[in-house]
Amino acid sequence: MTRRDAFPAGQQDAATLAGSPATETAALEGERLLRSLQGMWCTSCALAIEHRLGRLPGVSRAGVDYLSATLLVEGAPAAVAPERIAAAVGRLGYRLCDLESAPDARQRLDAESRALAGRLLAAAVFGMWTMLASLLIYAGALPEARLDRVLAWVSGAFALPVVTLAAWPFYRAAWRTLRAGRPGMDALVSLGVIGALLVSVWLLWRGAAEVYFDTAVMLVLLLLAGRWVETLVRYRGLHALEGLAPLPERVHRVRDAGEHGKAEERVPAAEVGAGERIRVATGETLALDGELLDAEARLDLALLTGESRPRTLTRGARLSAGCRNLGAPFTLRVSAGVGARRLDGLYRQVQALQAGKGELRRLAERFAAWLAPAAVALALVTVVVLLLAGVAPEEAAVRALSVLVVACPCAVGLAVPLASLAGTARALEAGVAFRDPAALELAGRVHAVAFDKTGTLTRGALRLAALRPSSGVAEHELLALASRAEWGSEHPLGLAIRAAAAEAGIAPGQAPAAISEHPGRGRETREADGTSLRIGAPDWLVGQDAEPARREAGPPWATEVAVARDGQWLGTLWLEDDPEPGAAATLAGLRDQGLMLAMISGDRPALVRRLGRRLGLAPEACFGGRSPEAKRHLVAALPGPVLYVGDGINDAPALAASTVGVATAEASAGARDAAAIQLLGRGVQGVPAAIAIARATRRVMRQNLVLSALYNVLALGLAAWMVIPPQVAVLAMVASSLSVVGNAARLGLAHPDAGKAPQSRLG
Questions:
Q1: Residue 279: pLDDT band by 50, 70, 90 thresholds?
Q2: How many CA atoms, within 13 angstroms, populate the side-chain half-sphere of residue 626?
Q3: b/e per residue, 100-130, with b = 16+ CB within 10 A?
Q4: Is the pLDDT of residue 624 over 80?
Q5: Of the residues 331, 543, 544, 686, which has the fewest C-beta atoms closer than 10 A?
Q6: For residue 407, what is the enclosing H or E element?
Q7: Sequence-ordered list of residues with C-beta below 8 angstroms from that of 412, at least 6 positions apart, any chain
Q8: Is 356 helix (H, G, I), strand (E, B) or coil?
Q9: DSSP 17-83
Q10: 578 exposed, middle or buried (CB, 10 Å; 0-12, 13-18, 19+)?
Q11: How far apart are CA 697 and CA 515, in angstroms?
Q12: pLDDT value for 218
């Protein structure tokens, strides 16, 4: 159990804050370019583009993910200008394009799959006859040696379409990566195929019949088959991402028609901009984000959050695309059009995650980078040493060919990206969106988990428990002014006050002239006539020269909120909240895993401790009355790595100071921006899922990395020091790649720990 002395007051958190992935991401938001790339053939292309872009002046970081065809470049504004980056990748033979939507990515994958299927079919049809001819030669089935040589020429003739048409993408990618100064797998594959052809032609010229055209064919055929498996894996990851945006393409736009009232027209959703109004029919899914203009709406949020029970929201509520209308038709004022919706942001976040680089992925790519030149050097050394040792030139050439074939770093290049993609897809299915590449690795190493209280461990759907106006102020007036002060607020307190006002028939009216947020204290609004309204913690209002005639006590379990106008105390409201269903079980499960737990809140200490008892937390693990700065220091003092879960703008400093920040489904925009992980399902049940999936993903990453590295080191050594037929080298290389793919595919299976998370319909 967490102890108070686990939070040394003097511990500094500057290093933690500076090194936070979320802080780094937020700091570079205005200096990053996220785009899609076309023309890549494999991970070597991605590494070559990274290498070239990383050397451009002003570029601080470049990341390319082959599986999602996404490019992420960060640096000075002029350095990451789209036209500059497009020119740089264009010189290598690739094309920069706008960030793909899920449907666009599916069309691209379909086109790639059709082209790949054609090449694979050609390789299989012609390669079959090459294999058959080689088999007859090896088996000695023909009575005359002259017929063996004829079959050898036949084998070469049937191999010609395979090593030209089917293998052309390998040669093109090899040339591009060589131009970029970063040759990789395709260069080795090309050398292996060309080497097998040259050795075979040389043997035929010398009158031998045991040629290796079948080795070249096997290399091309099996690598094309491996590409096919990769395409299936990419389809699975895309399927999870597509679940973020299964939205209607057309909406009912509402416009004023003068004396004829209002007119509706059905238009493409992409033509509707912010500020316009749309009508959402019964049973229709929201295509755009916006603000509810009607008194209330009954919505199914399962697509977005995984909630099984519908929710009723009141006028002024912020609605996100993906919700489904279960009640009467309602009108929505659009706040975000196509491309700027919350789901669009989540889609871009996941794409940026794939383009970013975690610790293990960078390690794998460094290993793959030196493997290609090392293999070529080892092949040359093998030839020289064997010739000096008196080995026949034919055998020396075949041994060097085996070294080139067996060294193809397919498994190394796929080891971490495949695990990352599979883990990300699995997390989306469990209602967890990882926004930062490092978070997927760091979340599996956390030692402590800290939670905010209101809206995180509690329902956040507060209700008005009591209302005490000052002398001369009516209850209806106090509620109306409190609702006015909370105009547009996303905080649970503000939502509850506005909901109570709506039930009392109080209209929200037009937006105030100015709104000021004071995280952890309250907010202030100013009207056009200069009137100032303040709402927030009573002590904060007293500090703003708003002194009540006398302080009245409310329910001890409720949160107290005071209202003042132009320095005059108007009254106090008390709102109560209940623990989020499943929160106690979630905390118990985390505690059973040996994690240190804490609850840190700006609410009254007595109220925080009372909730802690209901959730099974010891009093010394409950910290109340903490400002946003104090929250940050407490989170930084926890023994790390630390995971912090919050929902409000006052949680942003703590989210940034934590090793991994988690924003709940109902979190404010500020909290979401500061968090590296976002929960898509209501409550905190997704936290164990995030940790479990991150642990499993990191474990698979390490396994894949170790397996692929061991394979290449052992295979290179064996190929250099003993006779390994090139055909066997091809099979061993492909088997290593398939083992990595199969190991990563295990992440797609239901994880027992992750199963405790609320299942959303994402993917």
A1: very high
A2: 23
A3: bbbeebbebbeebbeebeebbebbbebbeeb
A4: yes
A5: 543
A6: none
A7: 364, 367, 368, 371, 705, 708, 709, 712
A8: coil
A9: HHT-HHHHHHHTGGGEEEEEEE---SHHHHHHHHHHHHTSTTEEEEEEETTTTEEEEEE-TTTT-HH
A10: middle
A11: 44
A12: 78
Q: Count CB neighbours of 465 within 10 A.
A: 16
Average pLDDT over residues 221-249: 63
- Cβ-contact 667, 710 below 8 angstroms: no
Nearest to residue 527, comparing CAs of 566, 575, 476? 566
Average pLDDT, the chain: 76
Pick from 342, 311, 300, 338: nearest CA to 668? 342
Query: Which residue carries 């919350």 as its tokens?
Result: 342
Taken as a whole, the chain contains a residue count of 763
Take residue 360 and report the two structure tokens written for it. Answer: 């293990």
Q: In what order do the strands lie in the sheet with 568-576?
A: 463-469, 568-576, 559-565, 532-536, 522-526, 514-518
Most confident of 20-29, 66-75, 161-170, 334-343: 161-170
Is the separation of the CB atoms in 17 and 26 below 8 Å? no
Between the two ends of the chain, the Cα-to-Cα distance in Å is: 37
The CA distances from residue 681 to 34, 102, 446, 685, in Å, are 27, 21, 21, 8
Distances (CA, A) of 629 to 287, 650, 653: 38, 9, 7
| Residue owning tokens 């049973």 | 283
Q: Long-range pairs for 460-463 at CB < 8 Å and ≥24 separation?
A: 460/492, 460/495, 460/577, 460/580, 460/647, 460/666, 461/492, 461/495, 461/496, 461/577, 462/492, 462/493, 462/495, 462/496, 462/559, 462/575, 462/576, 462/577, 463/496, 463/499, 463/500, 463/575, 463/576, 463/577
**Rounded to the nearest 5 degrees, what angle is found at the Cα of 217, between the Cα atoms of 193 and 118?**
110
Locate tokens 């919505």: which residue? 299
Alpha-carbon 149 to chain mean position: 56
Residue 512 DSSP class: P
Residue 336: beta bridge partners?
289
- DSSP letter (8 states) at residue 99: P
254, β-bridge pairs = 264, 277
Query: In this structure, are strands 596-600 and 622-623 parallel, antiparallel, or unpaired?
Result: parallel
At 12 the three-state DSSP class reads coil
